[in-house]
Write a structure and sequence with these properties.
The complex is a heterodimer. Chain A is globular, with a radius of gyration of 20 Å. The longest helix of chain A is centred in the N-terminal third of the chain and has 17 residues. Chain A has 17 helices and 14 strands. Chain B is globular. Chain B has a single domain, classed as TIM Barrel (Alpha-Beta Barrel), CATH 3.20.20. Chain B is built from 9 helices and 9 strands. Helices cover about 40% and strands about 15% of the residues of chain B. Chain B is of the alpha/beta class. In chain B, strands 1-2-3-4-5 form a 5-stranded parallel sheet. Chain B has a 4-stranded mixed sheet with strand order 6-7-9-8, sandwiched between helices. In chain B, helix 4 runs parallel beside helix 6. The chains are: A alpha/beta, B alpha/beta.
Chain lengths: ~400, ~220
Amino acid sequence: MSKKETKLPSHFGEFGGQYVPETLMTPLEELESAYLELKDDPDFKRELEYYLRVYVGRPTPLYYAANLSRRLGKSKIYLKREDLCHTGAHKLNNTIGQGLMAKRMGKKRVIAETGAGQHGVATATAAALFEMECHVYMGEEDIKRQSLNVFKMKLLGAEVIPVSSGSKTLKDATNEALRDWVTNINSTFYILGSVVGPHPYPTIVRDFQKIIGKEVKEQLREIEDKLPDYIVACVGGGSNSIGIFHPFIGGQPKLIGVEAAGYGLETGKHGAALAKGTKGILHGSLQFLLQDKFGQIIPAHSISAGLDYPGVGPEHCYLKETGLATYVSVTDNEALEAFKLLSVTEGIQPALESSHALAYLKYLIPEIPAGSVVVVNLSGRGDKDMNTIAQALGIEL
Amino acid sequence: MSRINERFAVGKQLIPYVMAGFKDLAASKSIIEALVDSGCRIIEIGIPYSDPLADGPTIQRASEMALSQGVDTDDVFKLISEVRAERDFSPVLMVYYNLVYRYGLERFADEAAKAGVEGLIIPDLSVEESSRWTAVAKQYGLDTIFLIAPTSSEERISKITGISSGFIYCVSLTGVTGARAALPSDITDFLARVRQKTDRKSTRLNSSHTDISRMPSSA
């Protein structure tokens, strides 16, 4: 007889934990018990699998990018096509999972934070599907930059609440969502969008995203009858990367996370918390983050709004410290070049976030043995980024 | 431990909150001096922080204003030691944990104690994560004042009353800091629930325009 779990591990090494006001401790405990109950519940699993299949569109294809492989050298590059998920990115895997949890817990209202608006749209979508009231917190700066996603959320029936505190971006939207949750804990489920925040969020979000890696394992076995040699994914908060890494941690594939170097690591204008950050507490967990010597948080910069975050998920911090994964970074310009390259070689327009992962291939491929199998997580599609890209290229639409 | 407990033995305490560096360092210094001169013996002094997630708009804006003038942790220690040099009161820091963590736990405790700080309220330091800090704080004679929320279970209330020193901070409603027209009607039940877990006969303070009430801890 197997012993039923009563607690999930709350830390990854020293990282993670629950650095939150006391008011949130009881709801976090409730969330953890609900998750422990549901995660192995056959009905819940069946329902989740159903929506992932017929609504999200899973499994997503593992595509052999023959042209790109030829262009870059002697490796075989596969793209995990999360960009083909409904709403255009991996984000929906998580919001469907947490949305179903909210439904089971009898919550009538969900809230979310969003930066670029991808998680906001994915939450609004799940809320529409499961007939729940939805409020999305979004920084005023981001609302200006991502007006299309704001419009989409409103059409999906969500209310977008502008956040005018601090740097008026994702980190402040997250603070505000946590403040809302503190105030409305009885009625409200907080659908957190990445593997960040207080325990148990980094674990729950990872578990809903690890289907990406699980599918890669099965698909590659079918195509190549082997495991990947390298897996490359971008890291902002880190949900798509932990999702594709997780089933392979400690195994043969070398795991490479790519952070946003923005204008360049030396400029200080970047989002590379693992490369340049120091240990500290943000949004309830211990992690590497961008901060000054007194512990004031320094806003990040990246051309990709999804990587524009001063912290990073605690499990990635653990993987870095233990050497179980390697983290690198590429600049805004390198990501733009990669975007253009994939567009013309494969006819696929990746999100600027995913373009960071692709951009690292020019450094990786020359260094690795010929014939290596490299899987890149194409975490989202580029439709949302057309204005940003046009602007960066100096083109007026 | 500090003199905070003794203060409560004398009588009820009105504990105001002041954001250090709002509207500037000189102004906050005069405010603290005026409060001491008017009879306040315990004063909460906030260190401005970029991401004050337990605070409502008023303290957020005050924090931003202080930070925009470059006010840092060392300035706050200096401010406190200056007032303490001339006036008798027990300063309690209201500080987010990242400011303590990044500064270095030992170094923070040392500088705080030297400046005359007697206790700390760290709103985002849960009991679960607190053991490293409380060990250091004890060594430097600093009280650590923990929060109890209306959502706290009986089990959690026991745990928190067990380790909180100086006083216990009862958060009177679920929400962020800020002015309210009234306190929740079940506030007395909540305080009674907490009181059951602490053996000390204690005084408390309620203001109808704040979301906070406090009582000395049994520690």
